[in-house]
Amino acid sequence: MKTFKVILMTAGLATTGMVMANIPVNHAAIAPASITTVKQALTAKDNTPIKVQGQVVKSLGDEKYQFRDKTGSITVDVDDELWQGRPISPNTTVTLIGEVDIDYKPLKRVEIDVEQVQF
User: What is the pTM of this model?
Assistant: First the structure.
């Protein structure tokens, strides 16, 4: 009988570990945003945390989109799975959380690398 109790206890701990392992960790890893507009993003340093609200006005292909807020527009890089299968239009307001991504080759290009989409 004692053996049976030990097996149940071990099974319970294993189940608890599996549940905890399924908790999304990417939400906790996102730093607080210090940039809140496209205008600020265009002059920010690389990897600066950002949280902007506006509209995705068109697809540019290869998971890149044109994003617009009240201060301007910028290219954003959004992995397909972040859309969660929800359709959006140029009138849909979304919040994008991520970081500024600057590339200097061949010319300086500023984008937002999106880590989370809020509807």
Answer: 0.73
